[in-house]
Design brief:
434 Repressor (Amino-terminal Domain); 16% strand; Rossmann fold; 13 helices; DNA-binding; Lambda_DNA-bd_dom_sf
Length: 337
Amino acid sequence: MTEEPTITTIAQRAGVSIASVSRVLNGLPTRADTERRVLDAARELGYAPNSAARSLKSRRSNQVGFAIADIGNPAYLAMIREIQPLIKAAGYRLVLHSTDTDTADEIEVLRGLGERYIDGLIMVPLRMTPEHLEMFAAARAPIVVIGGAPDGTPVDNVRTDSRTGVRLAVEHLHAIGRRRIGFVNGPTDTVPGAARSAAYAEALAALGLPHDPRLAEVGDFYRADGARATARLLRRAPDVDALLCANDLIAAGALDVLRAAGRRVPEDVAVAGMDDTDLATLTWPALTSVSLGSAERGRVAAELLLDRLRGGEGPPRVVTVRPHLVVRASTAGEEAR
């Protein structure tokens, strides 16, 4: 029985090192003549190259990346549900990468575009640094950014108007009679955190409400952090009668803390979140939340990326998805049913 070819036999046939064969067959950059000799030898020996080696010849991987901050955030899951079928129908495989909000990790993902592991990338960076912008400008594959990006960013961008979303929530809380409206935010050095912090102050001013710094607390965009931030706010401002939370995970943490403290929702403290994810219908009481169009943003991002992969040209495009408020029992009580 003829033995299956190995990287050793391919290296002997091609007259190169085993390391060179490994680099070629794993899709890593190498000299063109070395690549040709390795692939020719592999073909002569009947070696079935893996997808990375095939992509090195065609310069296509048939894979699209989706880089997100937190794979457990239901807002990103809503995006995935829209992106996956569109990408699959176009003949691509979707590769997920969770960066845990690590900027350095995001930069490494962008560097990977040069090695052609993926043919295009959808990215949701929470922080936008000069290095991000440099990598966008130098990218050799199409990129779509979901989230706020500076004007002139050289990639397609799908964003939401979170400032309007915050205003809608604050106006709603004011309309149901709340005047001590607290805000539990994520990190203010992130794009969404900064935008929502500014929008909260603007919304209070527009309604003639004072901006009391004791009513604003910063944590992170996770449930446990939301709970800790809410506990700090309650200790500092026990007379708070409403909480706006920067996402639904934070709001779920706030509900946990309020329940443990014996504060009734919404009778004592009305609570609103942002993103209007599946989580908003699973909390008790069901959560009023601002829809930021996560699913729509995912769909539009996939459509923009596929257009570029099919050869679409032109300047970077910016698409804004408008928010809307979904009222549930956490602010309107039983009547919301």
